[in-house]
Recover the amino acids of this structure.
């Protein structure tokens, strides 16, 4: 069946869902989530991450369940459930959400470059380069995006091993005492980690682009599991590397941690780490903006490049006229709690409605 | 290809966006020292290498006065032909006086905030004026005084009796509430500089010192180590010296969780080899080695007990017993710890294993 009008030749193998999900989830969040998490849960934060990971798995299951009933993307599902007008309204909300997601990643990264490396270069210069790159990748279609995602994963995996270097300066008693926080604290911590683990919901848009999409569920779960494990690992390393007060003091604990690394041929390793991080976040931005523009394409029946132009210019203007730290403040507020809440409340609701409709049709 | 072209063209936009920082066009400071002059005025001293062909170790020293640690950099840049940048700084020295008057937390805030400075920077406390230490000519003329001092402290930490130290490790301990930490002390004696003991900090104030002679015991209490030299007197008529080099040493802690009678047992374990014995006994004789082990255990236990009693009297905890105690007693707060620590029952048990005695009898 030709789901949501996607030609067979534009589809990717189900295996790549692993990289798409994992890569979308790991981005800017993993650089800084430790601080807020340590504030609420301290040494028990890893439980919050595991709990959040579990919730992500439940949501992946929900998404695949929705699509097993309504093959297509979120826009088809919305229309099926709510009819054309209300359905399109919710679809627009999703488009807006994806746009905010991509924008947050880009502006957060520009902020990092500003603080750590080039404080004097304007945001517009970085965003212009990123936007042109994103546009270029996007014109290649979804297969190209998947290729870039795969490549970015392969090229950045070694960054994980840099953290082992930090273990040399670690104090393992910092992991103790365990189980000192109440269930409420841990739930609160789960909310704080949500920013690191979101990204899986992009499946909602690229589902029709997967060959034999039903078989890709296990890869989606594997990708989410990988992210959860990496997040736990990063958190545990941060706990043993920093003391609690120090961890709360650091805005980007993961980056500060890499500044302890020294090689005979390179004194300041964190600059490599920060630059390399661009490769991590390129798929993040690309997929989000692709999803946003594709949403507009599907809703208004225009060529995808026009919304992409519009979005790019919008982001560029924001970068020219608003300081990155101000826009990050607003964007983070939108994503957490409103964006996360939207996903968490809306998707189960959608599943229930679609399920009820299906049952009624059968009767 | 038509799409690729604008992308490539756009990259050229970035080329001149950032200020270039070429090594030859900046003053790259490799050591910074802070002295207190009068009335909260800080004097910052920067050691800057001069790169010339065929000569090594040439350097200049620039200094400037201001009221804050970061502003000194701007003041100094005003006096130099090139801007002073901190990216390659290896060591930062504070005089004892400035730490007393201003406080170490206040001084390190800037160092930790500025991304130019790495986490691996070594901090050192100078007895007397930093200026005198920095103006000393290093015995090895191939390096400047900044590199010389940082290498000196580094090699002492790796092969000698100095405990590991850098900005990150220092702040890890001292940022905690009631945090106690330590830094190496550098002093100038005659024409040369040397490491001499450790300065102990409580929160932001320097409160005590560990003498050079106690550094081996201190290092063993604080961390696991593979090198270190301990000298002691044998308890017999001749009272001759024995020198033992540690191979694998460290300590672990047994903490009793009882609320009413908290106690900690520190088990020091030394695996070492005899480096020198100033007597003519046969050291291949196991009996003799056993006696040396036993006497060294006694001596170490006595030293460790004395050090810990001193710490307890001053209510400082550079060994980090607080964290270890908290790991067992979840509900402990710092206020409680402050009350129980001075009278806490802390036992030291020492086990020395002499693994080898060298190549001669």
């Amino acid at each position: 069946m030709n789901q949501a009008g996607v030609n067979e030749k534009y589809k990717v193998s189900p295996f790549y869902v692993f990289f798409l999900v994992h890569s979308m989830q790991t981005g800017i969040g993993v650089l800084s989530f430790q601080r807020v998490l340590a504030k609420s849960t301290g040494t028990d934060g890893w439980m919050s991450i595991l709990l959040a990971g579990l919730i992500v798995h439940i949501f992946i299951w929900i998404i695949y369940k929705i699509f097993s009933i309504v093959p297509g993307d979120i826009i088809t599902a919305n229309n099926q459930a709510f009819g054309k007008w209300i359905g399109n309204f919710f679809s627009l909300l999703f488009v807006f959400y994806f746009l905010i997601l991509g924008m947050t990643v880009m502006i957060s990264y520009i902020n990092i470059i500003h603080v750590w490396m080039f404080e004097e270069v304007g945001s517009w210069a970085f965003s212009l380069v990123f936007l042109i790159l994103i546009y270029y990748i996007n014109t290649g279609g979804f297969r190209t995006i998947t290729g870039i995602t795969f490549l970015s994963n392969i090229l950045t995996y070694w960054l994980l091993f840099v953290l082992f270097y930090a273990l040399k300066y670690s104090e393992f008693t910092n992991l103790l005492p365990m189980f000192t926080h109440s269930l409420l604290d841990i739930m609160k911590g789960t909310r704080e980690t949500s920013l690191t683990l979101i990204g899986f919901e992009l499946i909602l848009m690229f589902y029709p682009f997967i060959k034999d999409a039903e078989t890709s569920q296990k890869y989606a779960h594997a990708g989410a599991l990988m992210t959860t494990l990496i997040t736990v690992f990063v958190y545990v390393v941060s706990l043993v590397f920093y003391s609690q007060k120090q961890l709360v003091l650091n805005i980007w604990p993961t980056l500060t941690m890499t500044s302890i690394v020294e090689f005979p041929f390179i004194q300041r390793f964190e600059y490599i780490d920060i630059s390399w991080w661009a490769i991590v976040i390129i798929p993040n931005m690309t997929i989000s903006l692709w999803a946003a523009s594709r949403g507009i394409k599907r809703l208004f029946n225009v060529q995808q490049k026009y919304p992409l132009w519009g979005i790019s210019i919008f982001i560029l203007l924001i970068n020219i006229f608003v300081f990155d730290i101000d826009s990050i403040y607003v964007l983070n507020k939108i994503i957490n709690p409103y964006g996360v809440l939207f996903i968490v409340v809306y998707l189960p609701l959608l599943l229930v409605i679609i399920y009820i409709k299906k049952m009624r049709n059968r009767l | 290809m038509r799409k690729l072209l604008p992308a490539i063209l756009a990259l050229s936009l970035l080329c001149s966006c950032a200020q270039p920082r070429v090594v030859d066009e900046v003053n790259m400071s490799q050591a910074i020292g802070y002295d207190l002059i009068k009335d909260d005025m800080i004097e910052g001293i920067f050691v800057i290498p001069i790169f010339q062909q065929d000569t090594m170790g040439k350097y200049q020293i620039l200094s400037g006065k201001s009221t804050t640690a970061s502003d000194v950099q701007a003041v100094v840049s005003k006096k130099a032909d090139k801007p002073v940048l901190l990216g390659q700084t290896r060591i930062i020295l504070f005089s004892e006086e400035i730490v007393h008057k201003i406080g170490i937390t206040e001084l390190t805030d800037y160092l930790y905030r500025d991304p130019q400075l790495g986490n691996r920077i070594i901090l050192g406390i100078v007895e007397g004026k930093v200026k005198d230490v920095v103006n000393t000519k290093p015995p090895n003329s191939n390096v400047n005084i900044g590199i010389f001092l940082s290498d000196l402290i580094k090699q002492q930490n790796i092969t000698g009796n100095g405990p590991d130290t850098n900005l990150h490790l220092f702040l890890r301990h001292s940022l905690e509430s009631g945090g106690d930490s330590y830094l190496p002390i550098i002093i100038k004696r005659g024409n040369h500089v040397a490491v001499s003991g450790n300065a102990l900090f409580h929160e932001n104030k320097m409160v005590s010192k560990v003498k050079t002679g106690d550094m081996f015991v201190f290092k063993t209490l604080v961390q696991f180590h593979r090198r270190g030299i301990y000298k002691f007197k044998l308890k017999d008529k001749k009272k001759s010296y024995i020198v033992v080099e540690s191979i694998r040493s460290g300590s672990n802690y047994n903490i009793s969780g009882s609320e009413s009678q908290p106690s900690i047992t520190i088990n020091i374990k030394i695996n070492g080899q005899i480096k020198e014995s100033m007597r003519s006994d046969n050291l291949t004789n196991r009996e003799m080695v056993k006696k040396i082990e036993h006497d060294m255990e006694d001596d170490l236990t006595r030293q460790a007990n004395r050090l810990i009693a001193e710490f307890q009297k001053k209510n400082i905890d550079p060994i980090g017993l607080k964290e270890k105690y908290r790991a067992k007693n979840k509900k402990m707060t710092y206020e409680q710890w402050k009350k129980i620590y001075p009278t806490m029952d802390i036992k030291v048990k020492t086990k020395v294993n002499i693994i080898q005695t060298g190549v001669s009898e």
